TrEMBL record:
It comes from the Bacteria. Its main location: membrane. Belongs to the drug/metabolite transporter (DMT) superfamily. Small multidrug resistance (SMR) (TC 2.A.7.1) family. It is found in: Cell membrane. It is a multi-pass membrane protein. The chain crosses the membrane at residues 35-52, 59-78, 84-105. Pfam families: Multi_Drug_Res. The keyword Transmembrane applies. Keywords: Cell membrane, Membrane, Transmembrane, Transmembrane helix, Transport. The keyword Hydrolase does not apply. This is Multidrug efflux SMR transporter. It comes from Leucobacter muris.
Length: 106
């Protein structure tokens, strides 16, 4: 796996961090979650931008969003902020399959 793909995966993971921190900031009223949001957001965008130097924009963005969405939703279910249902888990597994498929055909 190339450095661009590694950075893309890490950036997608940071997307889940900033989304979760944004929720925890309660509308930017809490300092530390707000600070974590800013740092992880900037790092996530920088990694995405760097990865797009080698990976086509459509593929890079779809993989980045897919990773972030799956991790954010999974974390919300683990922490019981969202209900975990069989259908939600199946749909998240479908997203994972799509992300893997995009990598496979790239």
């Amino acid at each position: 796996m190339s450095l661009a793909w590694i950075l893309l995966v890490l950036s997608g993971m940071l997307e889940a961090v900033w989304a979760t921190a944004l929720d925890a900031s309660k509308g930017f009223k809490r300092l530390w979650p707000s600070a974590l949001f800013v740092v992880s957001y900037v790092a996530s965008m920088a990694g995405l931008a760097w990865a797009m130097r080698e990976i086509p924009v459509g593929t890079a963005y779809a993989v980045w969003v897919g990773i972030g969405a799956v991790l954010t939703a999974a974390w919300a279910m683990i922490t019981r902020k969202d209900r975990a249902t069989v259908l939600r888990v199946v749909l998240l597994l479908g997203l994972i399959a799509c992300v893997v498929g995009l990598k496979a055909v790239s």
